Amino acid sequence: MGKYEKLAKDIIQNVGGKENVNSLEHCVTRLRFRLKDENKANTDVLKNMDGVVTVVKSGGQYQVVIGNHVPDVYAEVNAAGGFAAESSSSDAGGEKGNLFNRFVDMISGVFAPTLGVLAATGMIKGFNALFLTLGWLTAESGTYQILNAIGDCLFYFFPIFLGFTAAKKFGANHFIGMAIGAALVYPNIAGITSSGVEPLYTLFGGTIFESPVYITFLGIPVILMTYSSSVIPIIIATFVASKIEAFFKRVIPSVVRTFLVPFCTLLVIVPLTFIFIGPIATWAGTLIGNGTLAVYNFSPIAAGVVIGAFWQVFVIFGLHWGFVPIAINNLTVLGRDPILVGMLGASFAQTGVVLAILLKTKNVKLKSLSIPAFISGIFGVTEPAIYGITLPRKKPFIISCVAAAVGGAFLGGMGTQGYMIGGLGIFAIPSYIGPNGLDMGFYGAIVGIVVSFVLGLVITLVMFKDEVVATDNTPTKKDDSVIQQETVGSPMKGNVIALSTIKDEAFSTGAMGKGVAIEPIEGKVYSPVDGVLTSLFSSGHAIGITSDTGVEILIHVGQDTVKLKGKYFTPQVKQGDTVKKGDLLMEFDMDAIRQEGYILTTPIIISNTGSYLDVIETEKKDIGYQDGLLTVVI
Q1: Catalytic residue among 26, 27, 320, 401
Q2: How far is CA 284 from its chain centroid?
Q3: Model pTM?
Q4: 424-463, pLDDT tens digit by residue?
Q5: Which of 133, 343, 415, 567 is 20 to 30 A (C-alpha) from 578?
Q6: What is the rounded CA–CA span in Å between residue 233 and residue 218?
Q7: Which residue has the higher pLDDT, 131 or 90?
Q8: Of the listed 26, 320, 541, 556, which one is catalytic?
Q9: Please, is 291 exposed, middle or buried when counting C-beta atoms within 10 Å of its C-beta (0-12, 13-18, 19+)?
Q10: Among this protein's residues, is 264 annotated catalytic?
């Protein structure tokens, strides 16, 4: 069994099974599912699963945050579910969502597969620029030229790579997408405008769209643009090609479809792209680039503050994808990008906050989580820090946003701009070396990083306080020889059975945490502790409570009862409510549920079992409301 095989199978089961998955992708830290029905996913189960940091639903995607080892988990999930072979990346099936969600989903689907190599080649190009600036290499040396070829190759031929990923996203033949991109950067076409040939005539003379015409296609003028490194033309062209290809698939007989569909599609889409799509998309890209530059120039400091302050919020909801094509377009049109610069301090602010928590906390578990989160943050991967440490404690997350905003102000004020898509964290630094070498903008990047990191560190050192754990059973005076414990009462009346005997493997294997199951004899659920109702499924069948001391209890009424979509369940509280031990949480119609064919065996588990020394089950076989059910050893 592979290292993550069991985790992969549990993830597939709790996103509703492989039949509920339309497509699967991954980015730096997340599995990005497109589900047919998100209501079939057990979000609370996934959030509390070992190996899963959290779950985010955004941009039409169901995002399972894994952490740095997401490529390995992705491979196991693909192997277990066969998604690479079976699932379609097109938008067919499932809910479409609103226009914005569909846009974010499209952008992430097109760009996410390229980001690893794009960052790698950008890092090589950035370090090569640094070596040139420091005088370690010359522009004429073979070493510099080969390194520059490695660093430039993907970005220069970006239309070919995006042709592949866009075709995959839009459900078209991948190689048709690549062929369109290759035609756009074909050397004999791309070199016409620089060969000294006089134009045949000029279109739109005297306007901002004035364009010399060097060639025609069937007598139609072709406005030649520079398509190397471009992003908008190839994405639009591939989308249109997917529709043209679908048309030809319908009308061409299957016996000759293999070669005639690509033949006809390319004959239509490539000239169409050169004549109409390419020029219009390029002009649109220029307007976008100049527009973003105008916004930045209005107040670089304000732009830096806003992007710095909210960047981590964008990341949480997956909205940062909306900035990626803008940044790449700016690099193509302007040769530089001022927009993404504001986010540079965010990862370092988050990392400074985590370091402060690491230095101050006496909580062994929190300290052990902080070490890898700090290391990841240095290299620009902040999801472990956000979801595992700062966001659950709220104040540290707010501190990191404030520190990032101040760092963003310095970056904007010093005119820092990016000149390539490079790495993350410390590997991003060479990306800010411009044509003039180590200028004020580059030093601004260093200052922004230092300010964000130090501010996050210092404010957190001053303001952070360890959480104090205390229960009615905890001695008021700390004594290391005394084992502290908390008793969780029974939320139901019925017969207690071992968790390992139930049919649901997510619970019976203990993957979700230790606990017991109850065969209820009354259709009522009462709060087993004083605490907060942290989760309440829309279907009403499951409740999550966090006690005042931090014990997380999950009560899952019945097996597969999520499929009832709330029928026969009547919640008496709502998510976020503060509850007292013995408060009525929910009522359910036992007879109606059983008549629908469902089992009412109810697992009751401590979902953060790993935070405690042990969880001890009651020895009683028959249990009443608020009788001691589980003892959590702290």
Answers
A1: 27
A2: 28
A3: 0.54
A4: 778 888 888 888 888 888 898 899 899 999 999 999 999 8
A5: 567
A6: 22
A7: 131
A8: 556
A9: exposed
A10: no
